[in-house]
Structures are given as C-alpha cells and as structure tokens.
Give the backbone structure.
Amino acid sequence: ELDALYNTNEKITLRDVILDPVLYFLNNYIKRRGYKDGIAGYVMTMLFTIQIFLQHAAQYEKKIGQKFKSI
C-alpha cells in the first residue's frame, strides 16, 4: 500500500509529517465535533491520526533514503 504512495510525485516535507496529523486531529475532533462521541470519537480520531503520521513518516523516510543513495 505504501509503495503506491511512494510512486506518486507528491513532495513530502518534515513539516507535512508533523503538521498534517495535528491538523487532521483538530479538524475531526474539534471542528467536526468528534468529542460528542465520547471516548469512541477520541479513539477513532487518534487511530486515524496515528495512521496518517506513520504513512507520512514512512514516505519521508524513503525520500530521505533516496537522497543519501544518490550521494
């Protein structure tokens, strides 16, 4: 699944790795009122936030690895 992400031309930065999960959490938990679902809303939002972070981190790690291979 992540190989499909790696093959895209999307440029990912360290800022994206850190900021995108935080913005996702704020958007879904606060703006879309996930807090009204109680602990279930929090857990679901956190699980998806962690998933986004791990996907972006893996993509960034591969990008950095490619830079060092070319040196």
Remarks:
- The chain has a mean pLDDT of 84.
